[in-house]
Specification:
The structure holds two protein chains of two kinds. Chain A is about 0% helix and about 50% strand. By secondary structure, chain A is mostly beta strands. Chain B is mostly beta strands. The chains are: A mainly beta, B mainly beta.
Amino acid sequence: EIVLTQSPATLSVPPGERATLSCRASLSVSTDLAWYQQRPGQAPRLLIHGASTRATGIPARFSGSGSGTEFTLTISSLQSEDSAVYYCHQYNNWPPWTFGQGTKVEI
Amino acid sequence: QVHLVESGGGVVVPGTSLRLSCAASGFTFSSHSIHWVRQAPGKGLEWVAVILYDGSKKHYADSMKGRSTISRDNSNNSVYLQVNSLTVEDTAIYYCVRDSTFYSGFDWPDYWGQGTLVTVSS
């Protein structure tokens, strides 16, 4: 089973600043990595797939990078609606499909 | 517009069974695999099970093997998850999630339903 480790657990960033979230895989997942945003009380929403491809309708301030075992989600110019928990997810080696434990972003 | 609506959750006693349903609309249901993902209160996301677009392949998390069954009815655009021998550890919101790929294997999950809450308590 591939374990995904996200850091930090919580990130506090002022509005307008940049947030950088990390996800490390226990084995290479190539670029088969997705990022999801979960706002309080809502279902997760797909942000990024293929490590760096934004999903339909996702603002350009969200960007993803990385391959193999190291991945980054960057949110430039944070806005209040970006307060959420962000999860990485690998779909390279399954079953099981696995998620990171999440990073909470506070604005 | 892709729409997934889960139902069947509720409060159940440990040791009993539950059948969750997911009704899909807004896309060609029979061409997409469907996952179930759950989230315990205040916790992260846990993948539960997946069924291939034509129902020919199914995979389960170890925590669900032997006591759960995923199935689908492509004529009714629905997916089901039957879970037996429920324990308090099964308390969670259960999400129905579409897999992005079609007429193929499995890829990234894209659209999520709003979830149905299952509470296992005596």
